Amino acid sequence: KIIFQHPKFEGVTKQLQQISKTKENEMKLAVDKEPDQNKKAQIFNTKRNELAQEEQRMMQPIFKEAELAVRTVAKVKKVTVVIEKSAVYFGGIDITDDVIQELKKNAAKK
Q1: Are 74 and 82 in contact (CB under 8 A)?
Q2: How does pLDDT run across 44-70, given as a tens digit for each residue?
Q3: φ, ψ for residue 81 (rounded to 5)?
Q4: What is the DSSP letter of 86?
Q5: Phi, psi torsion values for 12, nearest 5 degrees
Q6: Residue 89: exposed, middle, or buried by beta-carbon count in 10 A (0-12, 13-18, 19+)?
Q7: Closest by CA position to 28, among listed 54, 50, 6, 47
């Protein structure tokens, strides 16, 4: 939930969709020219890996900012252990909304 609420998430997602379309077109053009099935598979895997690397490169700053926001909120609330809400059966303090507000506050500063 936190990552999806990140102020930059939507923009990065749109960029990744464009990159994905470009890589898909590059792959189709290259595969259509190649008669060898093994090389076709290699081209496909190469383009898929390129897309995964690009996604990782673009998402990394969002993950880092989310982690920093979690650390900041946890420190302020004096929480020493933070785990995903779905892993908690009973009890605990949900800091999700506070983390989202921290992300938005930090984005407004930039």
Answers
A1: yes
A2: 999 999 999 999 999 999 999 999 999
A3: -130, 130
A4: G
A5: -65, -40
A6: exposed
A7: 47
